[in-house]
Amino acid sequence: GDLVASVSTHSRHARVNVLKISVADAMKRLSRLSPALGAFEYHADPHVPNLVVAPPGTDLHAHAMVKRGELILQGKSSCFPAVALGARAGWHVVDACAAPGNKVRSIHWFPYDRVGETTHVAAVVGAGGRVFAFDADRARLRRLKANVASAGAGEIVVARCEDFLSVDVNDPEYAEVRAVLLDPSCSGSGTSGTRGDYLLAAARGDVVGGSGADVAGGSGADVAPPDARVAALAAFQTKALLHALSFPSAERVSYSTCSVHALENERVVKTVAPRALELGYTLEKALPAWHRRGLESESAGLEAIGGAECLVRADQREDDCEGFFVAVFARPPPPGAAER
Ligand code: SAM
After folding, report:
1. Does ligand 1 lie within 6 Å of residue 84's CB atom?
2. 324 CB near ligand 1 (under 6 Å)
3. Can you tell me the ipTM of this complex?
4. Residue 279 near residue 246 (C-beta atoms within 8 A)
5. What is the DSSP pairing of strand 252-257 with strand 71-72?
6. CATH of segment(s) 2-9+75-330
7. Position in ligand 1 atom list of the atom nearest CA 258
8. What residue segments make up the domains of the chain, in order of their start?
9. For 24-36, b where at least 16 C-beta lie within 10 A, e where not — what string?
10. pTM reported for the whole predicted model
11. Which atom in ligand 1 lies closest to the alpha carbon of residue 164?
12. What is the pLDDT of residues 299-320, one digit of tens each?
């Protein structure tokens, strides 16, 4: 179908893992090791630093640099949260729902098998920082740990099999957490992999609802009617976002999905807005240079916290990347935290 065709015309992205190699060395090695990848170019992406762009169809899975964890196959839009989060070297950060979802891996032509927000944040905070990474799914957490080890981030990331909603935000261990990245389970309706699932399921005549999501513990089959399923995801996303905002010393919280549904995106932000304002948060204009913003049609109810213009959307048909949504909440450091 045309969705699959449109996906195959996307550029392929790979993030240079600066924990292991500098961008300059990576580019040198890329040209030395892969004369066959003549068209491979380092593209100084205006939105995502350290991102390598290859022509559509390039398959880097077997590349030695990928195997060594120097290059991480990560779609451009899935790099947005760690960039928009704006953590600094040495920060303590929570990655609330950290493990890679697995649906997309079953699609053989899907280019990114190691999504990597945790390792991306680890590269940002560096050796002096800490990333507390939670996931409720044991098998996925194992994959996360393998990715973290491969990326050389084992000393920075503390990965725990825990339901994020049960994490005690007042635990002294998290007293210095200044940023929280929340990328919870979603319908995945903005991604090619799940569009692929959708197309396959549609071809089989199955009823699917927005689909391909990775709800903790779920085995993947879509049985609930679409609207009920998306509403259930939105209810979880809202709870998780409220929990993320409640870390006492947090100054920045990013919320992201790879869904196209307003219900999982702008409306989640609207639902938490009153509480976020009470806690001193407003929306920051995330990735200010990015062109596609939150839905104007959803702006009612967002004015007080900053407006739909603050939000980021990516459209998999129009933009050269997967469908995505990002919101960034920011507040001044709490009193007493200034001298950190
Ligand atoms: N950010 C990840 C990456 O870059 O690879 C992808 C995260 S994926 C979209 C969402 C994850 O949330 C899944 O691995 C799922 O197991 C996890 N999850 C769902 N419910 C959770 C909960 N209550 N607590 C912690 N993790 C949860």
Report:
1. no
2. no
3. 0.99
4. yes
5. unpaired
6. 3.40.50.150
7. 9
8. 2-9+75-330
9. eebbebbeeeeee
10. 0.89
11. 24
12. 999 999 999 999 999 999 999 9
